[in-house]
Design goal:
Blueprint: E1 3-9, E2 14-21, H1 25-33, H2 35-38, E3 49-54, E4 61-67, E5 73-84, E6 88-96, E7 109-117, E8 122-130, H3 133-141, H4 144-152, H5 156-159, H6 162-166, E9 172-175, E10 180-187, H7 191-199, H8 201-207, E11 214-221, E12 228-235, E13 244-254, E14 258-265, E15 273-282, E16 285-293, H9 297-304, H10 308-324
Antiparallel strand pairs: 1-2, 2-8, 3-4, 4-5, 5-6, 6-7, 7-8, 9-10, 10-16, 11-12, 12-13, 13-14, 14-15, 15-16
Length: 326
Amino acid sequence: MPVTDVTTDPEALTMTLTAEFAAPVERLWDAFTNPRQLERFWGPPGWPATFTTFDFAPGGRAVYGMTSPRGEKSYGSWEFLSIDPQRGFELIDAFADETGTPIAEMPESRMVFSFEQTEDGSRLRNVTHFSSAEALEQVVAMGAVEGATMAVNQLDAVLQSLRDYAAGKGTRTEILDDTHVRITRLIDGPIDLVWRAHQEPELLKRWMLGPDGWRMTVCEVDPTVGGRYRYAWEPVDGTPGEPFGFDGETLLSEAPRRAVTTEHMTDTDYPSTLNDLNLYEEDGATLITLLIEYPDMQTRDMVLATGMTEGMETSYARLEGVLAGV
C-alpha cells in the first residue's frame, strides 16, 4: 500500500500523511491537479468524490461532493492559497453545504501538499494544520486517519494505465478492513456494454454462471432505485452442491458508472451485504471495482472461504467473451 505513515501531533495541531509511489513526481502532480483524476481516489472507498468546480490558481476554489453507498451526501470546498508547480500547493479545506459554501460550525484546516522525487519514484507528504486541539480531535473522531489512508491507497490504480495496472491479473480481492473487501477486474470492453451486462437479464444469463457445472435458473432484475432482483443457480451433470440464490434491492444507480445494491442469500437468515459497483473506462477497457460491506469480520471470512474470487473470475472471463459478440 502506498501510505507508509499517518501521525497526529496534538501539540503542533497537525495530521501528517506520507505515501510512496512507483511513479515520477510529474505523474503524481497531474493526479492531484486534474479533477477527473482526483475523483478516482480523493474520496475513500464507498464515498467517491465529484468535483463540480476546480479553479487551480492562487485565490481559486474547488468544490466537491461525496456520495455514500446509501445515498448520503457530504460536501467540501478548497481555497487555493499558493502553488509551486511540480513541488506542492497549499489550501484551506472546509466542510461545505451543497452550494459549496463553508459550514461555519465545522472546523476549517490548512492543508499543505508536498511532492518529492525519490530514487524509486515519488513521495507525497500531506500536512493538515488545525486551529485547535478540539478541531483536531473532532476530525480524527470522524475517521479522518482511516479515510485519508484508504483514499490515498487507491492512487496506484490512477498513476498507471488501466492495462498496466490490471490487464492479465484476473480477479483480485483485497481486504480493506474488518468489514470491507474490494474486488477488481479489468474487462476488455467499453463501459456502456459492461454496464448493460450488469443490468439486463438477457446478458446476465449469458455470463453470471459461476464455476463450470452450474446453470442460472432465475434472473429477475429491476435495476431502478428501489427495484428488486433475484438470482438462483443449481448444479448440473452431477456437479456437487446445492441450489442457492441471492436477492436484494437497488439503492443507488448512476448509469453507466455506479450501482449500489443489497445482497441477501435467499431463504436464509444470513445478514445482507452492501455491494457498491463502480466502472471506469480507459482505452477501450473497463475496470470493474466492487466494494463489498459485510456486517462483521466473521461473515466476511466465511464468504471469502467459499472460493468466491475464483467463481467470480470464471464469470468475468465468460463476460469478456459475451461482450466480444455483442
